[in-house]
Specification:
By secondary structure, the protein is mostly helical. Among the domains are: 84-164; 166-200, no CATH class. Helix content is 60%, strand content 3%. It contains 6 helices and 2 strands; from the N terminus they run H-E-E-H-H-H-H-H. The protein has a two-stranded antiparallel ribbon with strand order 1-2. A hairpin with a 6-residue loop joins strand 1 (40-42) and strand 2 (49-51). Helix 3 (94-112) runs antiparallel to helix 4 (116-158). The radius of gyration is 44 Å and the shape is elongated. The model is unreliable at 34-39 (pLDDT under 50).
Length: 213
């Protein structure tokens, strides 16, 4: 019983245990360490792994390693080749005939339709198709003009002359001149100019300071 042991005897016991531990360490004997709790335990060969309660388990665990899929965008990938509008238009030229047939079909449906709501939808669709057709023709004309300018530059380079490069403002002037010539041929120049005058008049009116009495 420790209550009947004197303080001197307790000190002697403590010093004796210390010396014994030191001798074991110097002679190379391993000191028995307290058994730690295993991080993972397995019950049998096919049993599930048990995580230690002392180690916090992450909220999201990657159970199976999955290879990440890398998506490829053909518009911005070099493997798809270089975009050339001339080759693209030649390859997909058959789409123009399909669009023409679709437009004719919508026009026929619009003539036969009696429902006002359906008729309005068909009219909007027809307007959209005509706008797309006009935009495509405009782009084609721009490409043809650029190709003709490139041909001229090549001819000048072959002759030993310095090729000229048009500025953006000069290109816009050429486009405007072609537009006016086309409107004059179709007989829509006067209506176009009158609409433009009206738009300019409205803009000038907005810019003027408001007069207060």
């Amino acid at each position: 019983d420790e209550s009947y042991v004197s303080f001197e005897e307790l000190l002697q016991v403590q010093s004796g245990t210390r010396t014994r531990v030191c001798k074991q360490a110097t002679h190379g004997k391993k000191i028995a360490k307290p058994a730690k709790a295993m991080g993972k335990q397995q019950q049998g060969k096919k049993g599930p792994l048990e995580m230690s309660a002392k180690k916090p388990v992450p909220f999201l665990r990657q159970v199976v390693s999955v290879t990440k899929k890398v998506h490829r965008d053909p518009r911005f990938d070099d493997l798809s080749g270089e975009y050339k509008p001339e080759i693209f238009m030649k390859t997909y030229s058959f789409l123009d005939s399909i669009k023409k047939q679709e437009k004719e079909m919508v026009q026929k449906q619009l003539k036969k339709c009696r429902n006002t709501e359906q008729k309005e939808k068909l009219r909007q669709l027809l307007n959209r198709m005509t706008q797309q057709e006009q935009a495509q023709k405009k782009q084609q004309k721009l490409r043809e003009r650029e190709l003709s300018l490139k041909r001229q530059q090549r001819e000048l380079a072959k002759q030993g002359k310095k090729p000229f490069f048009l500025k953006k403002s000069e290109k816009q002037k050429l486009e405007l001149a072609e537009k006016y010539a086309e409107l004059k041929r179709s007989g829509k120049l006067e209506s176009f100019l009158s609409k433009k005058r009206k738009r300019n008049a409205i803009k000038d009116k907005r810019r003027l300071p408001s007069q207060k009495n």
